[in-house]
Design goal:
Blueprint: H1 4-33, H2 37-40, H3 42-61, H4 67-87, H5 91-118, H6 125-154, H7 156-177, H8 189-196, H9 199-219, H10 222-230, H11 237-261, H12 263-284, H13 288-304, H14 306-316, H15 321-348, H16 355-381, E1 385-390, E2 393-398, H17 401-406
Antiparallel strand pairs: 1-2
Helix pairs in contact: 1-3, 1-5, 1-6, 1-7, 3-5, 3-15, 4-5, 4-7, 5-6, 5-15, 6-7, 6-11, 6-14, 9-12, 9-14, 9-15, 9-16, 11-12, 11-13, 11-14, 12-13, 12-14, 12-16, 14-15, 15-16
């Protein structure tokens, strides 16, 4: 694998750390800035809102910027947002800093996914994309716990200063390791939006919203489930969350080769397995060892869905793979918010601490239903085209019969720089 993928993974590590660390720092921030914990929760929402807004907007505006420069620029915005968060004197300015830090999140993963796919030979694109996302999963194992501990010991501002430092390291790595790649040919924002309106792309985004919401219906309340139902002490919760992160990493490692081999079957299998694991979680949560196994499995099969979903929308949005990949990050964040909301409704209704898992199972099943429907429509329409390089321009050509039948991931890049791919 090219070293450029390491630079993308480092960037993903920083992004994942700042995205999830706020959950553990809310009490500290609330005490320091004189607000309540529920109000401080708006800091989580502000980041998610930045992702939803920034993903399509920054990607479309930067469509003519060379990919390497775009990646460095997005990480610069990320770094400034975290620095602004660290120095914010008031709660309102901290909200603004979190919003700014979230703006480049989706666009970075959208551009990064296309760049990663263009760095490797055909048949390894999904592995390359999954390697980038490994940085995100490792952040949940190492970055978030370490950053939370740092904030508790030295103040929450220290956490965001360190994350800003990670951003600077990521910028240097991107500038040094990522080769110069031209921007894709574009005919304007209208062309981007028309490509994004492809039925298969929209169904892929809808699959992301429902399927991934199933994970966050549980993850948002996992700490309470472990203490109230399983009987773990509060001090054991970080270990449980780290196990969830280990599961995510295992899922990411498996997602690349499986998606390269058979995209749609991997998607169907992961969503079906997620629905099943979530459905049995209320029973598994009654004993410590089964609860821990279930937590790892939820993380693994849940994150197994991310790479095929990302590759699917990239392949189907032939004239706008970057915008589609970035918009998929918006869909992931909508799923985060929607899953937490749906799980909260079940708790408010008095259905019990493990009821969010059953809500998550229903959401995952809905995601599977959308994915299967999309697959049947795709087969009926004979839409099995892929993006290929032809004379430095983007062109569509029919995929092989084997790929059409198996759902194997086709080429997910656009035009190549002179000399072809590296690695």
């Amino acid at each position: 694998m090219p070293l450029a993928l390491l630079a993308l993974a480092i960037s993903a590590f920083g992004i994942g750390t700042t995205e999830f660390v706020m959950m553990g720092l809310l009490p500290d921030v609330a005490d320091d800035l004189g607000t309540s914990v529920p109000t401080a929760g708006y800091l989580v929402s502000a980041y998610a809102l930045g992702v939803v807004i920034g993903a399509p907007l920054l990607t479309a505006l930067g469509s003519r910027i060379p990919r390497k420069r775009m990646l460095v620029g997005l990480m610069a915005v990320f770094t400034v947002g975290n620095l602004a968060s660290a120095l914010a004197p008031t709660f309102g300015l901290l909200v603004a800093g979190r919003l700014l830090a979230g703006l480049p999140h989706g666009a970075f993963f959208g551009v990064g996914a296309v760049v990663a796919a263009r760095l490797v030979r055909e048949g390894r694109q999904a592995r390359a994309v999954a390697t980038m996302f490994l940085g995100l999963t490792v952040a949940n194992i190492v970055g978030v716990p370490a950053a939370t501990l740092l904030g508790q010991q030295f103040g929450w501002r220290a956490t965001f200063l360190v994350v800003a430092g990670i951003g600077l390291v990521a910028m240097a790595a991107l500038a040094r390791l990522v080769p110069a790649l031209p921007a894709e040919e574009r005919t304007g924002l209208g062309s981007e939006l028309r490509a994004l309106g492809n039925r298969q792309v929209l169904l892929g985004l809808l699959t992301t919203v429902f399927g991934f919401a199933g994970i966050f219906a549980v993850y948002s309340y996992l700490a309470s489930m472990m203490t109230e139902v399983t009987g773990f002490a509060a001090g054991s919760v970080p270990l449980v969350l780290a196990l969830f992160g280990i599961g995510m990493t295992l899922g990411a490692l498996a997602a690349g080769p499986l998606t390269d081999r058979a995209l749609r079957p991997t998607l169907y299998g992961s969503l079906g397995a997620l629905a099943l694991v979530l459905a049995v979680f209320p029973l598994a949560a009654r004993a410590e060892w089964t609860a821990l196994v279930a937590v790892v499995l939820i993380g693994a099969v849940g994150f197994l869905t991310t790479t095929p979903l990302q590759m699917l929308v990239m392949n189907k949005a032939q004239q706008a793979p970057t915008l589609a990949a970035a918009s998929n990050q918006s869909a992931f964040n909508l799923a985060n918010a929607g899953g937490a909301w749906a799980g909260g409704l079940a708790l408010t209704a008095g259905w019990g601490w493990t009821s969010p898992a059953l809500v998550g199972a229903v959401l995952a099943a809905l995601g599977l239903a959308v994915a299967v429907t999309a697959g049947l429509l795709d087969r009926g329409a004979g839409d099995t085209s892929r993006i290929v390089a032809r004379g430095g321009e983007v062109a569509a050509e029919p995929a092989s019969a084997r790929a059409a039948e198996s759902g194997a991931a086709p080429v997910a890049g656009a035009e190549l720089p002179a000399g072809g791919r590296t690695g």
